[in-house]
Amino acid sequence: MDINVFRSRRFWILGLLLLVLIGLATFPVYGSAYNVILLASILMYIILSVSWAIFSGPSGYMSLATAAFFGVGIYTMAVLGKTLPLLLVVVIAGLITFILALLVGTVTLRLRGIYFAIFTFGLVVLIKELLLFYEITITGTRGRFVVLESNETIYYFMLGILVVTLLTAYFIRRSKYGLALQSIGENEEAAAHIGVNVTLVKIITFAISAIFMGAAGAIMATRWTYVDPYVAFNPNLSFLPVLMVIFGGMGQLYGPIIGAAIFAYLAEKLQTEFPYYYMLIFGIVLVVVILFLPDGLVGLIQRLVRRWRKGGSVEQHANT
Question: pTM value?
């Protein structure tokens, strides 16, 4: 590709991203309260999906620990939110989930395939049951009240976390860690043979991806008056980001973004307008996507672009 064409394309992409960011930053000014809440929820799902894809996308390891890290962030806010500033609690939630993911990764990332997936999902159940036992047996209560924040505050914090998440995902993909993860996903034995510290790369990247899940959980907790282990450690949040990434596609960074945005919006509309048929319609959509879009929406977009370019080059050749 000509260097001038590359620079021009890069300029337009950066300009488009800047316009999108400005639009998102100013949305609470002209958007309704309902749409601000809806968009904050969509941003949350994008954060969870991109965070999941940072590690599981290139490595091929199916992590189902998202709900665990998200729930730890929720409880961090529930415990510390009344005494510490909001930003500090969000940072602490990210650090706690980072440390937890380091410990979990050290123990589990020597496992492969279905064993890793089962262990990470078991982590969700384990933390939920331990917290439930502690609250009922030790404190004699169940759940905690959370300090509420305004919709605009939640939205802007979620947007800030999203920007940091996307930047982290972008730089990891372009770093030696991203290349090492890609090689692990393609052939772990070969990656180890050429000198990649397979276990260390997996653990560090897994822990980094957990930071944003915990931070998103901490902010989302301020939207609810009351949380308990069943609310905080909802197992659906372990599966939905996986489905969103599959729906969008893992080949490009924008795949999980598109998948999560459409998936979250579709889920909200179906739950609101078709509550009795929500799961049926949702299931049909997923089956259709898995059968006919194995590479997700990104794969469909790439095929359409290739077909358009091919058609354009054929037409140009015919004219000449």
Answer: 0.89
